[in-house]
Amino acid sequence: MDMQETESVAVRFENVKFKYDQNSRYALNNVSFSVKEGEFVALIGHNGSGKSTTARLINGLLEATSGKITVFGKDVSDKKNLFEVRKSAGIVFQNPDNQMVSSIVEDDVAFGPENIGVPREEIGERIEWALSVVGMTAYRNSSPARLSGGQKQRIAIAGVLAIKPKILILDESTAMLDPKGRKEIMDVVLRLNKEEKMTVIMITHFMEEALLADRTVVLNRGKIVLEGEPQDIFKNSELLETYNLSLPGIGYICKQLQKNGMAIRDCLYPEELAEEIASLLQEES
Amino acid sequence: MDIIAKNITHTYNEGSPFSSAALKGVDLTIREGEFFGIIGHTGSGKSTFVQHLNALIRVYTAEKKYNPKKDKNTEKPVLQIGEFDLTDKKCDFNALRAKVGMVFQYPEYQLFAETVFEDVVFGLRNFAKEKPTKEAEEAAVQQAIEIVGLDYADVKDKSPFDLSGGQKRRVAIAGVIVTHPEILVLDEPAAGLDPIGKREIMELLHKLHRDWCRTIIVVSHDMDEISENCSRVAVFSEGKVFKCCTPQELFRHSEELEALGLDIPLTAKVQRALAERGVEIETDFTRDDFIAKVSALFRKKTDKGDDGSCGKM
Lengths: 285, 313
Hints:
The structure holds two protein chains of two kinds. Helix content of chain A is 41%, strand content 20%. By secondary structure, chain A is of the alpha/beta class. In chain A, the strands form two sheets. Chain A has a six-stranded mixed β-sheet, with helices on both faces. A four-stranded antiparallel β-sheet of chain A has the order 2-1-4-5. In chain A, helix 4 (105-115) packs parallel to helix 6 (149-161). Chain B has two domains: 3-264, P-loop containing nucleotide triphosphate hydrolases (Rossmann fold, 3-Layer(aba) Sandwich), CATH 3.40.50; 265-304, no CATH class. In chain B, the strands form two sheets. In chain B, strands 6-7-8-3-9-10 form a six-stranded mixed β-sheet, with helices on both faces. Chain B has a four-stranded antiparallel β-sheet with strand order 2-1-4-5, covered by helices on one side. In chain B, 44% of the residues are buried. The chains are: A alpha/beta, B alpha/beta. Chains A and B meet through helix 6, helix 7, helix 11 and helix 12 of A and helix 8, helix 12 and helix 13 of B.
């Protein structure tokens, strides 16, 4: 591995194994993959497939049983690197209530940068920037306890952004939000990825979200079983079912219509399906 | 037990600078036996409303005496659930809460006991007028754990925290239904689960609806969940009920929902895109009905138009 490659790789897993305790099965079993700097990767898999374990291994919340994990070339298992690694990879979890540390929004967002020793003046700027990115500037002096779940989650994201990480890890961070809140978060994430070139690793159960990624990695029982463009993966209904991922609603409709003799392609978007059905029904017989 | 609500208002932190009106006069009737959906974007008042149903939030007049002179612009609120009058301070709230079960969002976060058995039995003991016998407790807990689809012998002595996410949620639901509520209210019961877990939870709710609780009320953001499962649905907006009707009626006017910032089911999206392309179909917005109607159109076309229809249904 030459130096240049190391620099452009944000996260690399090499034969990583992990188990939560001696007697349990491997939660991750010989996983190798890498994420390039600036890439947007969606991690999918059914509950218990090892997605969250992977997220926690990246910034050293968990330590691999064997194998090697590097973040921007730094070995995560080396305690000396841990501080640096956590500065460059921030995780946003599922439940915003578990991530609030303060009774005032701006204090909560300030917690991260204070912790890593950002100068006082700059903290103010970072809070302003982070809150504006997630659209919560008006709530700067509010109490998180008085915010809705979606708003709290945006504060949690702002709290991570304030550290200015190079990698943003989202562990089902939109699961508790309403569709509008989810879209807002996805807009923020896409903007960070496209404009700020932030590397994004997103764990999600929502096909609509995974479709926005550059690449999708499918985990099943602690192993990577599928990797590729999300469009290709979500059209592969047989494989999805093999890995205990149910077919998305639209895929189910396509399959049933095909079973009923309609020659339509597998679709991912409502418009696409409507086009297929309409052209089939309207073609001259 | 029918639920009749009229003129329910609620203001959080009234009289303080944080005062905010969450409910501004809610009128809603939910009949016994319904599988009822409640939708609305964040902050529309739906959670505040459902918390009234088992008196976690008291109806405005239950705390302060209704004063017709001072409140002359507002009509007296009504909240009647079966025989319980929730506006009456003397209402037996304990009995009410045993009859109206409430499953919060992410109920697994509320598990607390050392064993699954202890966790589930807690509600039973809490609401019982006199202490149930050991045998009665065991029988009730076993029944509750089994109906939610877990193996009683296998899980009863385990720590609830050693179970998987989906199992934890089932234990939490068992802990609520163990008192045999007639009405079960669930706030986003499928949130955060993977697609298979979601489907299993919805199947469980149908099973409970059939065999256990007469009325199920589900608060959800997932419009596909609503269109597939609910018999009627209420849309909350800005502290009021914006609309209450069947899902079919609701999603036929999908533009209204979108104006409120709400999503619409997949089938409604496809149907609208089809209409733009000149293919009009009418469905009840469930997937299976959609598939059946589209397939029927297709068969008609391939049958070379024996009946001369023009492709409209």
